[in-house]
């Protein structure tokens, strides 16, 4: 800084101290100017407060916001264009429903309803993402541009004006010691700065219509989001109600109790060890009863694998699990046997031979 510049800074500091400490009055600006300055200051504070609160309205979770800002900064450093979107709560809930709906399966009424609602919530989340982008473009970006350009320029003009006022007041107070030409020059610079600052504030405050349009953009974006959400949820409600009605009209299924032994190992009356998975306990009891009343062990016999109902005269009927005494084999498909005092023919593919006939 030159000597003249240092001297001027000293004059300004001297004048400021006298005004603050000694109560010396400086040149007063007109009320209209002061009123514009007050409104400009309010506008600046408004933007500083409104922009972060609007972002908080769109993205309520501060932890996620901080994470997104960090990822965005890292992407810019790396030169990456792809940005990470904010995880909307509707999307998170929708993902949860889709996950468990898929696990239950679409054949389950509740599972299918979860899938439908999950998809609907994902659509709501997409609509909210669109609202975020639209609000940023039509409301947040213009306000931030106003803050970084016009308001910054006005702040510069006001600082310049204050500096020139202090310089003018200092020289005016030392009239007689300072040449009139210097005082006049200082006054002209003061007037010039006042005019620039006043013009800038006037232009800012006269664009109220533009600011109202920005507010309207915010309102339209929010309303469109709620309209889309309502339509999506109305369709979901209609579909879900239809499914509830259809499910309610379906005949109720009766519970059939099944007693199942997961793994049963036993030794039958012939000394064979058998392990069976999924054996019905009642079936085992029936077999044991049949064994108890079965034939002697020294006779050829077989065990019924299935129940057989005789259709022709001379055929022998039996139930699954019965022990049948073998008397003769007619051919490779038919045998003759006896059970409970009755004799007759029966098919070989219905039985399992336990003790074969002698060759």
Relative strand content: 5-15%
Please outline the major beta sheet. Answer: 5 strands, antiparallel
Kindly report the spatial arrangement of strands forming the biggest sheet.
6-5-4-3-7
Mean pLDDT: 83
Question: CATH superfamily of the largest domain, called what?
Answer: Arfaptin homology (AH) domain/BAR domain
Name the CATH class of the largest domain: Mainly Alpha
Structural class: alpha+beta
Separation of the first and last Cα atoms: 129 Å
| Low-confidence spans | 261-273, 276-293
What percentage of residues falls in helices of 4 or more residues?
55-70%
CATH topology tier name of the largest domain? Substrate Binding Domain Of Dnak, Chain:A, Domain 2
Rg of Cα set = 48 Å
Number of distinct beta strands: 7
Question: Helix and strand succession?
Answer: HHHHHHHHEEHEEEEE
Shape: rod-shaped
Domain BAR: 18-249
Pfam families: BAR (PF03114), SH3_9 (PF14604)
Keywords: Coiled coil, Cytoplasm, Endocytosis, Membrane, SH3 domain
Family: Belongs to the endophilin family.
Walk me through what this model shows.
The protein is of the alpha+beta class and 359 residues long. The chain has nine helices and seven strands, in the order H-H-H-H-H-H-H-H-E-E-H-E-E-E-E-E. It has two domains: 3-84 and 130-249, Up-down Bundle (Substrate Binding Domain Of Dnak, Chain:A, Domain 2); 260-355, Roll (SH3 type barrels), CATH 2.30.30.40. It has helices at 3-21, 31-58, 62-78, 89-104, 109-148, 150-173, 180-205, 208-249, 281-292, and strands at 260-267, 273-280, 301-304, 323-329, 334-339, 342-347, 351-355. The chain has a five-stranded antiparallel beta sheet, with no helix packed on it. A two-stranded antiparallel sheet has the order 1-2. Helix 4 packs antiparallel against helix 5, helix 5 (109-148) packs antiparallel against helix 8 (208-249) and helix 6 runs antiparallel to helix 7 (180-205). The chain is rod-shaped.
């Amino acid at each position: 800084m030159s000597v003249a510049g240092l001297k001027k800074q000293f004059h300004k500091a001297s004048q400021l101290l006298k005004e603050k400490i000694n109560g010396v009055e400086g040149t007063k600006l007109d009320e209209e100017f002061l009123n514009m300055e007050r409104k400009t200051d309010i506008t600046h504070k408004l933007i500083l407060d409104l922009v972060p609160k609007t972002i908080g309205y769109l993205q309520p979770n501060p932890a996620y916001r901080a994470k997104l800002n960090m990822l965005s900064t890292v992407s810019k450093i790396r030169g990456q264009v792809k940005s990470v979107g904010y995880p909307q709560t509707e999307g998170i809930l929708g993902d949860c429903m889709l996950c468990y709906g898929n696990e239950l399966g679409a054949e389950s009424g509740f599972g299918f309803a979860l899938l439908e609602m999950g998809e609907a919530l994902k659509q709501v989340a997409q609509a909210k993402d669109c609202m975020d982008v639209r609000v940023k473009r039509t409301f947040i970006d213009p306000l931030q541009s106003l803050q970084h350009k016009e308001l910054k320029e006005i702040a510069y003009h006001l600082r310049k004006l204050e500096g020139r006022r202090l310089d003018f007041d200092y020289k005016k107070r030392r009239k007689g010691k300072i040449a009139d030409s210097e005082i006049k020059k200082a006054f002209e610079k003061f007037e010039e700065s006042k005019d620039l600052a006043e013009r800038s504030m006037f232009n800012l405050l006269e664009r109220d219509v533009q600011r109202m349009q920005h507010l309207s953009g915010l309102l339209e974006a929010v309303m469109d989001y709620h309209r889309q959400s309502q339509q999506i949820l109305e369709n979901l409600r209609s579909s879900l109600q239809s499914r509830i009605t259809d499910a309610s009209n379906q005949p109720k299924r009766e519970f059939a109790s099944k007693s199942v032994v997961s793994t049963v190992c036993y030794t039958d009356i012939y000394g064979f060890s058998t392990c069976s998975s999924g054996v019905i306990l009642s079936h085992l009891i029936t077999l044991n009863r049949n064994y108890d009343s079965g034939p002697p062990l020294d006779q050829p016999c077989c065990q019924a694998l299935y129940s057989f109902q005789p259709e022709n005269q001379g055929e022998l009927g039996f139930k699954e699990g019965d022990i049948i005494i073998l008397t003769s084999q007619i051919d490779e498909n038919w045998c003759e046997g006896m059970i409970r005092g009755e004799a007759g023919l029966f098919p070989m593919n219905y039985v399992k031979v336990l003790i074969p006939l002698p060759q």
